[in-house]
Amino acid sequence: MYTDDVKAEWREFYQAWNSHDVNAILSYFTDDCIYEDAAFGVINKGKDEVKAFLNEFFNSTPDISLEINEAFIVGDWGGSEWVMSGTNLADFMGFPASGKRYTFRGASITEYENGKIKRNTDYYDFTSILQQVGYLPAADSFALKLLFRIRRLLTKPFSRY
What we know:
With 161 residues, the chain is of the alpha+beta class. It has helices at 4-18, 22-26, 46-60, 126-132, 142-155, and strands spanning 29-37, 42-45, 65-74, 77-87, 101-113, 116-124. Helices cover 35% and strands 35% of the residues. The longest helix has 15 residues, at 4-18. The chain is globular, with a radius of gyration of 19 Å.
């Protein structure tokens, strides 16, 4: 089903994210939900773990903004494409605050049960975020090109001839 109603439903969900309303976000989930952040490799099981994850995330990025581009629901499955922006102002998942702003595209795949989210997995380019906040060199930087050349030299098989 691809309708404006589906997009409106996703917009409401993302509005709860944009307002950092953890209880409103949790109201969309089943009690035994699974929320997976594939890029971080984190799987949160149940509302208590999701709540802790969200609180840490909102603390690290207090100006978070999510914008939905596309969305669909087919049976008990749905998906959305979105853009997230924010400023990394506090430590998150072992990464120290950088004070730098980031913007990236992502997608969510969602399984529903009785109209609520049973499982949600977010996919996005984590390398892009690390580059934007300064933890990795930019893709076109001399430093990254040098790292790849060194890697190639170190992994190239040695020849006797």
